[in-house]
């Protein structure tokens, strides 16, 4: 038996979270640090619950002695209405993926943006962050764009196949970062804007096992561009492989996945995670998945 101060209980609320690698990442890091931590996926689909149940699940988690939760699709915005306190960045971003449960209160944070930010610093320390083209302005893309602007990007070209989405995000981000220039762009404009850019960030599902291929004409990439992908299943997406082959400096999507987990681990446990160790474990987990997929491709799960 132990109380909330002696051991740590964490959950992940969202749809389709059973294949998530965040629970094993937290548990292994805690094991190595000699901390007792259990991390349970709480899958809305398995529980046949709607996204709106997130408030009830927060209350249940508090009653059952959870120390914290990660929150994912489709609850990152819905959860805002159930919090007692929210970090400035999460409030500005309008999305929460980490909730601390302290003294019966719910405190929201966002480690998607901070995780991408630290990934960029660790994985591409010398990247010039002046002008960036970002493909994909959905949920993860919003956090990434916020991180890029916070990291000092001055000109961000936001490309999405859904022009209304790109326009809406660009307007929101432009208000949050008034000294930056954030412009919605179409895929047809890529050939005009890529040669002006220092780097490319990819935040669409293209490149995942279920959506193979390249998100742009690879001829638009020059060796001087840096390239950050956030897709991590597989870890070496076609974009990552072809960009590397061209001589571009590359950041794979695993860096962000580890970054968000490491930052949430620190918020929830109060202990710093060893990011290199967590990444090594993450790569092991991905390799196990890849080996299983090679044996039985039809069983490959379509997660992140
Ligand atoms: N590394 C990490 O920690 C994480 C990685 N991901 C990855 O990021 C991907 C995107 O996730 P979300 O933003 O949650 O998805 P989402 O569905 O909210 O957004 C994807 C956006 O990409 C746009 N899009 C699709 N094809 C496009 C194309 N060819 N060119 C330009 N835009 C295009 C869509 O219109 C949409 O706005 C996921 O598929 C997953 O692989 C997601 C979450 C975390
Ligand atoms: O969106 C994501 C991905 C995630 O749900 C996962 O399954 O690893 C974990 C969340 O903390 C993060 O915000």
From TrEMBL:
Q: Where is the Shikimate dehydrogenase substrate binding N-terminal domain?
A: 12-99
Q: Is Amino-acid biosynthesis one of the keywords?
A: yes
Catalytic activity, reaction form: L-quinate + NAD(+) = 3-dehydroquinate + NADH + H(+); shikimate + NAD(+) = 3-dehydroshikimate + NADH + H(+)
* A GO CC term attached to the entry: cytosol
Matches recorded under SUPFAM superfamilies: Aminoacid dehydrogenase-like, N-terminal domain, NAD(P)-binding Rossmann-fold domains
Q: Which pathway does it take part in?
A: Aromatic compound metabolism; 3,4-dihydroxybenzoate biosynthesis; 3-dehydroquinate from D-quinate (NAD(+) route); Metabolic intermediate biosynthesis; chorismate biosynthesis; chorismate from D-erythrose 4-phosphate and phosphoenolpyruvate: step 4/7
Q: Where is the SDH C-terminal domain?
A: 256-280
Q: Which GO terms describe its molecular function?
A: NADP binding; quinate 3-dehydrogenase (NAD+) activity; shikimate 3-dehydrogenase (NADP+) activity
Question: Which GO terms fall under biological process for this protein?
Answer: amino acid biosynthetic process; aromatic amino acid family biosynthetic process; chorismate biosynthetic process; shikimate metabolic process
- Which EC numbers does the record give? 1.1.1.24
The superkingdom of the source organism is Bacteria
Key words, A-Z = Amino-acid biosynthesis, Aromatic amino acid biosynthesis, Oxidoreductase
PANTHER family reported for this sequence: BIFUNCTIONAL 3-DEHYDROQUINATE DEHYDRATASE_SHIKIMATE DEHYDROGENASE, CHLOROPLASTIC, SHIKIMATE DEHYDROGENASE
This chain's protein is named Quinate/shikimate dehydrogenase (NAD(+))
Organism expressing this protein natively:
Paenarthrobacter nitroguajacolicus
């Amino acid at each position: 038996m132990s109380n909330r101060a002696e051991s740590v209980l964490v959950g992940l609320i969202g749809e389709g979270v059973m294949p998530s690698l965040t629970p094993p990442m937290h548990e292994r890091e805690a094991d190595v640090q000699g901390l007792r931590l259990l991390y349970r996926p709480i899958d809305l689909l398995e529980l046949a619950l709607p996204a709106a149940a997130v408030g009830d699940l927060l209350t249940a988690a508090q009653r059952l002695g959870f120390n914290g939760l990660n929150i994912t699709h489709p609850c990152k915005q819905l959860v805002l209405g159930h919090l007692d306190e929210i970090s400035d960045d999460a409030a500005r971003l309008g999305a929460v993926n980490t909730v601390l449960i302290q003294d019966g209160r719910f405190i929201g944070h966002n480690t998607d943006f901070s995780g991408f930010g630290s990934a960029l610093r660790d994985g591409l320390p010398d990247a010039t962050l002046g002008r960036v083209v970002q493909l994909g302005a959905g949920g993860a893309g919003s956090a990434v764009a916020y991180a890029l602007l916070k990291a000092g990007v001055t000109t961000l070209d936001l490309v999405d196949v859904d022009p209304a989405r790109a326009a809406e995000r660009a307007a929101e981000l432009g208000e949050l970062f008034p000294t930056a220039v954030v412009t919605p762009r179409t895929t047809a404009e890529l050939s005009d804007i890529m040669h002006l850019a220092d780097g490319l960030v990819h935040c669409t599902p293209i490149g995942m096992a279920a959506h193979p291929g390249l998100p742009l004409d690879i001829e638009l990439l020059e060796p001087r561009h840096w390239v950050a992908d956030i897709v991590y299943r597989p870890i070496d997406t076609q974009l990552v492989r072809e960009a590397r082959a061209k001589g571009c400096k590359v950041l794979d999507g695993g860096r962000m996945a580890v970054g968000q987990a490491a930052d949430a681990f620190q918020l929830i446990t109060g202990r710093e995670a060893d990011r290199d160790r967590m990444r090594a474990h993450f790569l092991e987990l991905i390799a196990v998945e890849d080996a299983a997929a090679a044996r039985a491709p039809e069983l490959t799960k379509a997660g992140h």
